[in-house]
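Entry for the shared binder. Reason: the reviewer on the internal report wants the predicted structure included alongside the sequence.
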Amino acid sequence: MSFVQPILDRLEASPDHIFLQEARDGALYASTGADLGARIRRARAFLRGSDLRPGDRVALLGANSIPWVAVDIALLAEGIVVVPLYARQRPAELAGILRDCAPSLLLADDPALLEPLHEAGAPETPFRPLADLVEGEEDDAPGSGGGPSAAPLDAEDPVTIIYTSGTSGEPKGVVLNGRNLDHMLGATRDRLDLLMKGHAGEERAFHYLPFCFAGSWILMLLALARGTVLTLNTDLTRIVEDLAIARPHFFQNVPVLMDRVRDGVEQALRRRGGPVRALWEGAFRATVAAADGERPGLRDRIALAGARSVLFPSIRRRIGTDLRSLICGSAPLARDTQLFFEMIGIPVLQVYGLTETTAICTMDAPGEVVPGRVGRAIPDVEMRLGENDEILVRGPNVFGGYWNRPEATTAAFVDGWFRTGDQGEMDESGNWRVLGRVKNLIVPSSGHNVAPEPLEEKLAARVPGASQVVLVGNGRPHLAAIITGPVEVSDVEAALEDLNRELPHYQRIRGSIVVTEPFTIESGLVTANGKVRRNAVAERLADRIDAIYDRSRVPA
């Protein structure tokens, strides 16, 4: 049976229940089971009336919306392979993806997206607006528009091709199949059952991450199957306002947003100064000490108790009073940021995985969180360390291969284990920690291997206003840092001096570059899911990087 069938059954059984809501300009626009089911039937009728057949590929380009979800479910129900695309991605990259997957049809929510694609060399592909598939009249007879049943799906049948972010090269198409989806939806359902245990009534979630990302898409499918009321943010500048009206019990995040929330709160408290700042700083010291297994000092314990009374309730009101948890993935979350949310009473459940592992390898279990770690492997998934402490994975969540890339597929596996490319470590309880990317290792002329991510995290925490930190120094006599954002050079110098005191000689950072404007997707220096393209940054700033080493010949 197709994993789509439970979704169709749930919609049919709950015609008056709200499944999706779009938050727009302070109002919520709802789609009930009857409405969403009708949209899906219209889309299925269109697909069945076309030349498309099960196994054909269709590209889906657009922002999160109710029509996007309806068309996605309709494609899946007809056995058509969905290729979701990110509307904010550079036209040249999207054109390359379209050339690679050669879809039979391109569906987009905005026809204006087509011209830049064609200018960038996208192939001529039949096009239809999403609205054409979901709007219009339909026959009210039961089973109209293709019937309630989804096309049969075998375990090895391809379901979707999701393209990787391409941090160091061209995006690759990850082919996920029926087995991958069945296993992942079951594992995530069980974890949400634990999170929502004891809750009676409506279950609410909020969503702002694009559905073209594997983890985001999994959560959308799971919400529909569970009957969760899923509110879609349609304007990233209004996330705080939308949270207030959505009142979610949980929502999915990436570290960059959570870091910004924490920075915003801390900067506001610093500006208030005096007793408020002292209360906050004492509370955080007490939280860190407790997490380290130490007994906080009396003054800090008193500060924590006071902050719980007078500070934390107002902060929680801004983020969400009904929140049971924040779910965080895409990249490791800074331990201090996780502790910040834990301190104010909002647990954070980390998830680790890649598109190739159907988004997830590990998940934190409610009540068993270790800040700074990403949880244990999910059921039936095996993980171990390979060469250079690379995390290796095997299980029903692992993909079968890259689209049109047999050599890349072969290189991605060793003895049947998928090579994640991530360095990691596991504690005695089976909780994993992700240290960084193996390919990001910096080897200065001293010959030492340096994982940049932990150092970047520590430096970013010490520089007020820092948006991104990128270390360079491969083959050079020492490390140097690129810091973006409205930062002061004097703050950077002070932070480096402070950080270097605790580092071994080969990890010390002895040069820096300040770039006022943060790297963005539009500049080509950040991937669709917010990861910095290190090679592109190094190439763009090559002259400034060379100047650091021309000025400084300090031995490593």
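Summary line for the report: The domain at 255-321+323-437 is CATH 3.40.50.12780 (Rossmann fold).
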